[in-house]
Amino acid sequence: MSRSLLLISFALLIGLQSQAQTNNPQLHSRYVWTKVLDSAGWRKSYNFQMFTQHDTAWVFHHDGNWYSTNGKTWAKSQLGNAIANLAFLDYVQFKGAMYGLGHFEGNIEHFTFKPVIYRTTDFKHWQILSVRSNLPARFFYHPFVFNHKIWIIGGEDKDRQYSDIWNSADGITWIKQRDNLPFGKRNHSQVVVFKGKLFLLNSDVWTSTNGLDWTLLAPEILKGEQVFGYTPVVYDNKIWLVGCNRNGRFYSQVLVSSDGKNWAGQTAPWTPRGAMASTVFKGKIYITGGKYGGMPNHPDFRYSNDVWTLEKK
């Protein structure tokens, strides 16, 4: 056998081993995916959000917001998209309301950022809490709520990335709590509260009990792979990473962990994608949206707006 064929065979073997290591048959027998809608009312897109507010599921989309009390029938709300470009900034649930942190128009090369803070309590109208808050002028971070405050970690602006952490008790006044965090400068970090701790997720996993002091739990989610582009949710006492990009390729596999250190996989029936929206609603994980492409074998991007659920049997 030629050297090139040997290399190809070895690469295929490694790929199959990697897939086997992260594909857990028990997850297939205990959890089931169901398609709810082939095409929802919102435009096919990615980098938008899903939330659960009381007995209602919400989709906060680039083109506006939709809501549902059963997960299948959706109506468009009169509440608009306040922060504009959801690829750069996020909404966050806080004290029974929805907050919009900042306003971003444009793209990475030419943009306008305003530190406006929005809030809605009735999910019909936005209230502007401040037009000149001291919200850090940056993007590509995901805010989270912990100990009755909103927190942000890292992110970037046009010139650099950050390794600091800020929090706010009202969304208006922000205080830097720590700089030069041990995990270094980073963006797109996802943070979940799980078993009383904070879990910071990129391609590695860090934990904290107070938001200030961090410990490396797992240097890699999957050994030898860069994992990104996923949306984390906590369901059935586990962390679920939905829509993973692994080493630059999109998969339809979900990664699951009961401790944040050891991860198993479940291959899902929906098409490969990343940057999805997800929430836990009425005992199920709901997902929608996402994109696929940008790879040598599929350079064009494909976007989605189908709706699926994951439920424990």
Task: Outline the structure in words.
The chain is mainly beta and 313 residues long. The strands form eight sheets. The chain has a four-stranded antiparallel beta sheet. It is globular. Mean pLDDT is 91; it is low at 1-21. It has one domain (25-312): Neuraminidase, CATH 2.120.10.80. It has helices at residues 3-21, 25-30; strands at 31-37, 49-53, 56-61, 64-68, 75-76, 91-94, 97-106, 111-120, 127-130, 144-146, 149-153, 165-168, 175-178, 190-194, 197-201, 205-208, 215-218, 227-228, 231-235, 238-242, 245-246, 249-250, 253-257, 264-267, 277-281, 284-288, 291-292, 302-303, 307-312. Helices cover 8% and strands 42% of the residues. The N and C termini lie far apart (48 Å).
Describe the secondary structure blueprint for this structure.
Layout: H1 3-21, H2 25-30, E1 31-37, E2 49-53, E3 56-61, E4 64-68, E5 75-76, E6 91-94, E7 97-106, E8 111-120, E9 127-130, E10 144-146, E11 149-153, E12 165-168, E13 175-178, E14 190-194, E15 197-201, E16 205-208, E17 215-218, E18 227-228, E19 231-235, E20 238-242, E21 245-246, E22 249-250, E23 253-257, E24 264-267, E25 277-281, E26 284-288, E27 291-292, E28 302-303, E29 307-312
Antiparallel strand pairs: 1-29, 2-3, 3-4, 4-5, 6-7, 7-8, 8-9, 10-11, 11-12, 12-13, 14-15, 15-16, 16-17, 18-21, 19-20, 20-23, 21-22, 23-24, 25-26, 26-29, 27-28
